[in-house]
Amino acid sequence: MTGFLDKAYGLDGVDDTRDMYDAWAATYEAEVADNGYATPGRCAEALLAHMDRADLPILDFGCGTGLSGLALATAGFTMIDGCDISAEMLDVARAKPGLYRNLHHYDPANGVPFAPGDYHAVAAIGVIGSGAAPVEVLDQLIDALDPEALLVFSFNDHTLADPSFEGRLNARIADGSVELLFKEYGDHLPGRDMKSNVYVLKRL
Predict the structure, then answer these.
(1) Among candidates 176, 178, 154, 177, which has minimal Cα distance to 166?
(2) Is 3.40.50.10490 the CATH classification of the domain at 3-203?
């Protein structure tokens, strides 16, 4: 069961991405589970290791069906909001009672749906990369964070093959916008022999 995964990395533009994830919503969790989707758990544990408290509000940006939210909750986080561009994915997330405090549909044309001070941390797990959100979204997330707030995110092998993504990250580290607290290369989709980098940044 790899039909949508085969298509995901070739998407181009917001409309294509939204349409595919709407169509994928009903089978997404089964498909990624079949391939051992490991990045959400890795991101959640990395974020927890760099936060003093797990009861502070965090945003699951690009939450999809809620798999990333489940990983955050399993790690111990208790106040999680979610947002996504796919209404169908959000319907699946809403069916997980008690997981999210709030869930929002958002339009990328309007920028990221939060302001500095809203969240102590933002998770963008499997969100930015080839066939998904463009590299500019990394800038938008960083710029919307309060000083000292954290951002955890991942780049999979497809994304790491495009130097613009880590290039943009390294530029933001070099210009003093953020501090890199954590970077680790590990399993992403073992069933597809795919790995990912997990990063934790602190806004300066």
Answers:
(1) 154
(2) no
